[in-house]
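During the second year of the project, the team shifted from modelling isolated chains to modelling whole assemblies. The rationale, set out in the original proposal, was that interfaces cannot be judged from single-chain predictions alone. As a representative example for this report, we include one of the complexes processed in the last quarter. Its constituent sequences, exactly as entered into the pipeline, are reproduced here:
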Amino acid sequence: MQQNPSSDSIVSLRDVQKSFGSLRVLDGVSFAVERGEVLALIGRSGSGKSTALRCIDRFEKVDGGEIVVCGHRVDRPDVDLRALRQDVGIVFQSYNLFPHLTIEQNITLAPCAVKGLANSQAKDLARKVLAQVGLEEKLHAYPEQLSGGQQQRAAIARSLAMQPKVMLFDEVTSALDPELTAEVLKVIEQLAADGMTMVMVTHEMGFAKGIADRIVFMHRGKVHETGPASILTSPTTPELTQFVGTGNLKS
Amino acid sequence: MSLQLDFPAVLERWPSFLAGAVLTLELAAFATVLGALLGTLAAVGRGTHNALISGACKVYVETIRNTPLLVQIFLVYFGLASLGLKFSAFTVAVAALTINVGAYTAEIMRAGFEAIPRGQIEAAEGLALSRLQIYWHIILLPAIEKVYPALTSQFVLLMLASSVCSQISAEELTAVANYIQSDTYRAFETYIIVAVLYVILSLVMRAGFWGLGLVLFPRRRRLGTPL
Amino acid sequence: MGGHLNINHLMFLGQGALWTIGLSVIALIGGGIVGFVIALARISPLKSVRIASAVYVQLIQGTPLLVILFLGYFGLAAIGLKVSPLAAAGASLTLYVAAYLGEIWRGCIQSVPKPQWEAAEGLALSRTQRMLKVILPQAIRIATPPTVGFMVQIVKNTSLASVVGFVELMRSGQIVNNSLFEPFAIYAIIAVIYFAMCYPLSLFSQRLERRMGRGRSNLAPA
Ligand SMILES: Nc1ncnc2c1ncn2[C@@H]1O[C@H](COP(=O)(O)OP(=O)(O)OP(=O)(O)O)[C@@H](O)[C@H]1O
Ligand SMILES: [Mg+2]
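Output from the structure prediction step:
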């Protein structure tokens, strides 16, 4: 668990390489996320956004380069996975709530099992994080009794309960219709306002523009263009111009 | 006896083992072919609108699937005898195994038939195919392709289960083993050897069915299939 | 000796049927425990454990139960390990059932969708916690119908214990037959009793399967 003294980055990737078989998916990706910053990963389908995100939480092992997350050297084989994942919260496109557990049990499971929280403390915590996502009344419901948007908010609450230092979101609204999308985005906006460090893969360009401190545009496994949210309105590369021009930038 | 194992003394009898293995394969081959036919007929019968036929098929399938093969073999054996009919042990064994595997085949084929989407049949009707053509091209062959892995596993299980035929003195592999061990007093070595032979037979059968699948279903060859 | 089927014969058959049930329970519990270990070993992170358990499954599933029984009874006796028919039958069935249940259960564990594993991993749960709290509770639900279905195979397979002289239903039928010599009638009665034990299990398994809304063809070693 070496600290990286040179910067205040919560997440930093340097020259990360990753291939699936002969397919090179990440080809020298570098970017960093400072404390309290919101970074949006955008790009065409297949450009490697999800892979980059999954590398940060070590769901994929990298072939080369360096990844440091909250002081953990994620690229090293001896990284302490459980410590890493206590510092990192991840939310998936498909919610992935545990269907056999109530929302409350979904939320209290990890704090009790991993952090050794007492049951009553964990329950208070569950109430608190559910209030944060506006779902207090669903404490005792099962996931299948919730709408997609509610399930996704519950999944966010489940991650929050571990009090992570950084949250990763992978297209968390792309399975939802516009109305439900809005309610999830509102929750994420609130998190950003509260100062949570976040990395999000998103296709919602309007949302990215409004919330992100920095945009990373990926193209063919490389960071093709990066900068503040304003690059979405005045892109410099033809690829990003084309990407934001194809109707991606609306709402 | 002794703790000294002596495999060579038993392996000396390899011609008998070989003959037993060949007979086991013959039993399995006959029962597989006949049972596949019987089972497919029963599956078709089960799906007909004639309550008598579909009821009879259901009774056949459920009766066989819920009673032990050993009992079935004795029933066939003594049943034929009580009718005054005299058949060789081999014939009785084939008959019993056929009846047995037919019931399992029927269940598997029924699942295959049910997996054919209605739209496929309607599309074929729209192309003015005859009922028989539809049955063959649109229902039967695709159904077999769908359940091919389940069917072939069942046939391998049948080959293994045929060891029970030793109990009516069909001279297959297990019967040969029983004979050799009583002759050599080396039961442990004998049954180990026979177990290895069965494992080899089942691997051979699986490889054979895998190859046959490639020939029968070109699409599987193109898209690749796990063994 | 000789004469007609009487109440004593039926009582004797009933006692045999009880032993069939007893042996089935032994096989289910023994095979269930060993099978659970096999299922976990088959998906172990250690390659050597995965290979060893796969070899076990391949060997047992490639050998007839009858040969395993002969090996356990006559084979062991021949090298100086004399065991009772009950012990031989119980142990052989345990090894046999374990290989099949282990494979069925491995399939059920692996059919819990991959994102569930990842979500549990993302919450920093340890491997054991993921298995116990997230995967197994879901796998058990998936595993119930095929497990009940396999119990039918267990009951039927106990009939093979008769060939090493264990007096369960099949063997008691043969003993009754030795005095009456009405083989067809007696085996027909035996068949009916087996059917009465197996068919309810079959129906129950089918109902569970339908309730779960997934069709699964029921592979069966006859
Ligand atoms: N586990 C895997 N095995 C093999 N190939 C993979 C795997 N995961 C991703 N890929 C491939 O890597 C490439 C990048 O995938 P990735 O999921 O990172 O793209 P993405 O930018 O997230 O796209 P999308 O917007 O569609 O989610 C794709 O071509 C994909 O097919
Ligand atoms: Mg993606």
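Chain C touches chain B at residues 58-59, 61-68, 70-71, 74-80, 152, 156-157, 159-160, 162-163, 170, 183-184, 187-188, 190-191, 194-195, 198-199, 202, 215, 217-222 (CB under 8 Å). The first helix of chain C runs from residue 7 to 42.
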